[in-house]
Amino acid sequence: MQVALITFEQLIDQARMTHIKSAKSTLLNASGITIFYNDELAKLTDLDKQQLSFFKKEIEQEKDVITLQELGLYNYYLPLKKEAATAEALEKVRMKGASLLASLNGSKSSEVCITNLTGEKELSLALAEGMALANYQFLKYFKDKKKRQNSLTTIHIADKYVTAKDAESLQHVVEATLVARTLINEPVSFLSAVQFSKEMQKVGKESGFSVKVLGKKEIEAKKMGGLLAVNAGSIDPPTFTIMEYKPEKARNKKPIVLVGKGVVFDTGGLSLKPTPNSMDEMKCDMSGGAAVVGAMMAVAKNQLPVHVIGLVPATDNRPGMNAVCPQDVITISDGTTVEVLNTDAEGRLILADALVWAQQYKPEVCIDLATLTGAAVRAIGTYASAVMGTAERNVMDQLAESGMHVWERTVQFPLWKDYGDEMKSDIADLKNLGGAYAGQISAAKFLEHFTDYPWIHIDIAGPAYSNSASGYRTKGGSGVGVRMLYDFIHKNYC
């Protein structure tokens, strides 16, 4: 199958990247946003008495944003209640950034300057982050894409506590999240497994990490029976991509391994998904793989002193060719036999081969991300990811704290032996389908079988993709996992 190539620069352009820069002072030729505590009006030295009186009334009415217009420019003032910069407080500011973005684009502003009078630099960064993430657009397939482009291109931060390095670091994390979104939003007509691997190579070359791609013959030689079985119904070959970022002075002796599910489209195979709507979002079934690409990009571009490896098994899941049948028995690369009772429970099969591959690295911790089960969505909705694992309690807690900090929240479920019993087969070592309840847990118990190291599984089925925008989470792929993984690695291994 012939696929069109895309350059990394085009990938970034399609993400509608907003540039975040530190500034020494407020820019006179740009729209402005001023953050201040609502009981510290005296700090607004640019206001006259009449304006101050107006502000007092607006604050009494608990207005979220106060707007002034001068010399054709809109200036927005953000009164905040004085409180600790908690995860909840930062999320409120990100969401306010998203709502302000709509006003800025509505007034055709190309630049905005954030001035912060609170002394809390986290507020400046959260506001810029919310605006930049909300400014994302996926316009590749519109004929009039230039006409549709948002006007805002640059966010300046005039905060004496925000360094150029702070702004650059945030820029890279936002950029990585938007690249993940773009990969998710690409249709399978473009993003086949082969093309997905090519995109990873481009991102690696630009960001500074190595990428090795195993093609079908190499996958066959490695006896990756899970990945080959899911691919058996497709005319397009599978790929297995290995990304590695290893700086000279890495602080971890054992690598952190990230594994992402890369099913570029999931029809359900012969266990075809029922209609209507059940296939409408299935181009997002590689969101776990996209999150791993984004996390590798953010870590490498910010040059964190951490050895990180990313693994992405990729294929589409189709009912054609010699597709695997329900009740078939396949063999994973470690020799484990699996009775396939439902071909729509395919993600765990390709992840099994990746988790076996990860054993050779003896990782400090291995974290996999996958849009794995509808059960996770039914259990906790779209507001969080389901998490299970065998890593030490403190590591699980650290990941949960990072998820809360960036508002990619997680809910931990148990991994009791009982759920593993549901995965026993009458004719093979395992089956790929558990009981009628708690499918997110039985799926994780299946994956646990292939690990011999500290491991965390994140089922991102709920928050990975949305058919409507919510604040800075734009319609389509969310890029969930990128910011959480980066925060986790940065805070705990640097």
Question: Main attributes?
Answer:
nine-stranded mixed sheet; Aminopeptidase; 2 domains; alpha/beta; six-stranded mixed sheet; disordered N terminus; 494 residues; single chain; Leucine Aminopeptidase, subunit E, domain 1
Break the fold down into its secondary structure elements and pairings:
Blueprint: H1 8-14, E1 19-22, E2 31-37, H2 49-60, E3 66-70, E4 73-80, H3 87-106, E5 111-116, H4 121-134, H5 145-148, E6 154-158, H6 164-185, H7 193-207, E7 210-214, H8 216-221, H9 225-231, E8 239-245, E9 256-260, E10 262-266, H10 287-301, E11 308-317, E12 328-331, E13 337-340, H11 347-358, E14 365-370, H12 374-380, E15 385-389, H13 393-405, E16 410-412, H14 417-421, E17 430-431, H15 439-448, E18 455-459, E19 465-466, E20 476-477, H16 482-493
Parallel strand pairs: 1-6, 2-4, 2-5, 5-6, 9-11, 9-14, 10-11, 13-17, 14-18, 15-16
Antiparallel strand pairs: 3-4, 7-8, 8-11, 12-13, 15-18, 19-20
Task: Give a written overview of the molecule.
- This protein is an alpha/beta fold.
- It has two domains: 8-162, Leucine Aminopeptidase, subunit E, domain 1 (3-Layer(aba) Sandwich), CATH 3.40.220; 179-493, 3-Layer(aba) Sandwich (Aminopeptidase), CATH 3.40.630.10.
- 37% of the residues lie in helices and 20% in strands.
- It has 16 helices and 20 strands.
- Helix 11 packs parallel to helix 15 (439-448) and helix 13 packs across helix 16 (482-493).
- It is elongated, with a radius of gyration of 24 Å.
- It starts with 7 loop residues before the first helix and ends with a helix.
